[in-house]
Amino acid sequence: MSDTDIRAISAVLRARGPSNLLVFGLGAESPLWLALNHGGRTVFLEENEFYVKYLEPRHPGLEAYDVSYTTKVRDFRDLLEAARASRAAECRPIQNLLFSECRLAINDLPNDLYDVAWDIILVDGPSGWNPTSPGRMPSIFTTAVLARTGATAAKGPTDVLVHDFQFEVEQILSKEFLCDENRVAGSGTPSLGHFVIRPDGRRDAFCSGQDSTAATSSEKTAGK
């Protein structure tokens, strides 16, 4: 992660902390996120169970869980179309993810994580560097649902940060589920998208005007 991205994320953590912080992905920056959120709860979700077992004893207080992903980057357009087709049913924006049948939903986390009102969610995993990588489709969709479920007037909005935002999957899935209307203008960097999710009362659409196709096959950016 670049120094520019680290500074941008750190600024959000300082502004909201101590907070409930959920991070998809473990990496070299993980101890920094943990330290900056001192006094809050920081949870990491990682695709590599061996990396979780390696880091936890080396960083006291680090709370991390391994996640098994079944998606593949090569299938992301089919997965997106399936989610659109069931946006008012299995893939709706407000739901209990524990019982979700949406193919993009992550529903095997520890039960209590679904009840946390997350203040900040950082999407920096899982990997998406080749067609057989799991890609960040499920982490972005699950983030969108968690943010809308936990975004209440009492708690305030959820800041969502998407790393590697210059890539196709991250851009298209963010546009579909986090929404351009929620993106913070002038915030983040070219490789970091910053969204603020607030409760809006919609229960069958993530973004305004979603009766039309939000992303098309012509939307191309640099691939991984």
TrEMBL record:
Membrane topology classification: Single-pass membrane protein
Q: What is its main location?
A: Golgi
Question: What keywords does the record list, in alphabetical order?
Answer: Membrane, Transmembrane, Transmembrane helix
Q: Where in the cell is it found?
A: Golgi apparatus membrane
A GO-annotated cellular component: Golgi membrane
- What biological processes does GO assign it? xylan biosynthetic process
Protein name per the record: Uncharacterized protein
Entry's Pfam families? IRX15_IRX15L_GXM
* Organism from which the protein derives: Oryza brachyantha (malo sina)
